[in-house]
Specification:
The structure is a homodimer of 193-residue chains.
Chain A lengths: L1 H21 L6 H8 L3 H7 L3 H26 L3 H19 L4 H6 L7 H27 L9 H22 L2 H14 L5
The first copy, chain A, binds a DNA duplex (18 and 18 nucleotides) through helix 1 and helix 3.
Chain lengths: 193, 193
DNA sequence: GTCTATAGATCGATAGAC
DNA sequence: GTCTATCGATCTATAGAC
C-alpha cells in the first residue's frame, strides 16, 4: 500500500521538522495535517498520541545515526573524517532551516514531557555520547586529535558545544555555529585542513 | 506599597523558574497564580501579556549579569576569577533545579516566540558574548588562558558548550555539566587550580 | 490589587460514517 | 485510510464588581 506508507512518512518528516523548529509544545496536529491536505484525525490514525509521534521522530533520528556510524563503531576507521562529517552536517542543517537536533528541541521542555519521550531522548543522547567518545578515543590514538583529559569528557564537551551553538545560531545567525565549529577544530588541532 | 512590589516580584521569580524549567510554551498563567494563592487575572494586572512577562524575566537576568560584570567591563580585573565564577554559577544552578539559562529555554521555541521576546533574547545573548569575549581576551593577555584563534570565537564556544551542557544534564544527570566544565578548564589550561 | 466570570481560541483525542 | 463532527480540557486575555 503505497498511500499508507507515503502518508505516514510525510507525517513523520513534517513532525521532525516542526519538533526541531518549534519544540514539543510549539506544534500541533493541525500544523502537521493542514500542509499535507489531511485532517487532524488522520494523523491520529497513524500515531495515536503526540507522545507516540514524537518518540517515532526521535527513533528515526537514532536509526539515521546508527546507519551512518555502525560500521565505524564495529570496525573503527578515520576518526577525523567522522568528526568533520558531524561538524559539517551540523552546520548545514543549522544553516538550512535553523533546526536544532531533537535533543536540543526536547531539552527545553524536558521536565514537562511524557515519560516515553524522555526515555527516547535519553536513548539518543546515550548513543551520541557513546559514538562521540569512540571518535575522540580513536582520534587521539591515531594522532589526529590533540586534547587533555578523558575522551568521554571531551566527547560531551563537543556535543554540548554543537547543541548550544545551534541554539545560539537562532539568535545570532548562522555565523555562530560556524565560529564554534572552527574553534572546536582549533582546540583539537585539526583547523585549516 | 509593599504588597504590590512583593506580589510582582513573586510573579517574576515564579515565571523565571517556570520559563527555565518548562520553556515558554510549557507554563501558563495558572501555573504562576496557583502557588501564589492569587488568580489568573491578578497576574495579567501586573503583566498584561505573556510576552510582557517573559521579556521582564529576560531583562531581569540581563540586569543581574550587568550588576555582576559592569565593574569588570569598565576597569578589567582577574579574567580567571570571572571565568571560574561563571562556571561554578552554571554548575550550581543546573544541579539545584535543572534549570537552563533563559537563552536555552527560549531557543527551542525561538521561531514561534512573540517578536519582543525574540528581541530580548537577542539582547541577552549579545551581552553574554560581549562579556565572555572580554574575559577571553584579557585572560590570554594576563597569561591565564591558553587557546588558539579569535577570543570572540572561543567565547562563543564556551557559552555554547555551557548552554548545551545544561540541557545534556537534564537527560544525563548533573555529572554532564561538571564534565563539560572540567573539560573547558583543561582546554584553557586552568584545570586543577 | 485582587476577585468572579467568561469570552474566544486552540488543543489532544475520540466516535462513527464512508 | 480519511473524513465530519465533537468532546472536554486548557489556554491567553478581558470586563467589571469589590
Amino acid at each position: 500500500m503505497i498511500a499508507r506508507t507515503d502518508t505516514k512518512d510525510r507525517i513523520l518528516a513534517s513532525a521532525d521538522r516542526l519538533l526541531r523548529s518549534h519544540g514539543f509544545n510549539g506544534f500541533s496536529y493541525q500544523d502537521i495535517a493542514r500542509p499535507l491536505g489531511i485532517r487532524n484525525a488522520a494523523v491520529h490514525y497513524h500515531f495515536a498520541t503526540k507522545a507516540d509521534l514524537t518518540v517515532a521522530v526521535v527513533e528515526s533520528v537514532r536509526k539515521l545515526l546508527h546507519d551512518r556510524t555502525d560500521h565505524f563503531m564495529a570496525h573503527g576507521g578515520d576518526a577525523r573524517l567522522q568528526m568533520e562529517g558531524f561538524l559539517v552536517f551540523s552546520i548545514r542543517e543549522c544553516a538550512a532551516d535553523g533546526c536544532v537536533c531533537p535533543v536540543g528541541a526536547l531539552a527545553a521542555d524536558f521536565f514537562a514531557l511524557p515519560e516515553p519521550v524522555q526515555a527516547a531522548a535519553r536513548r539518543l543522547v546515550d548513543d551520541l555520547v557513546t559514538w562521540m567518545t569512540r571518535v575522540c578515543t580513536l582520534g587521539r590514538e591515531q594522532g589526529s586529535f590533540r586534547f587533555q583529559g578523558d575522551p568521554a569528557d571531551k566527547a560531551r564537551e563537543i556535543l554540548a558545544a554543537l547543541q548550544g551553538a545551534r541554539q545560539l545560531s537562532r539568535v545570532l545567525g548562522p555565523s555562530a555555529i560556524e565560529a564554534v565549529a572552527e574553534q572546536l577544530r582549533r582546540d583539537l588541532g585539526i583547523a585549516g585542513v
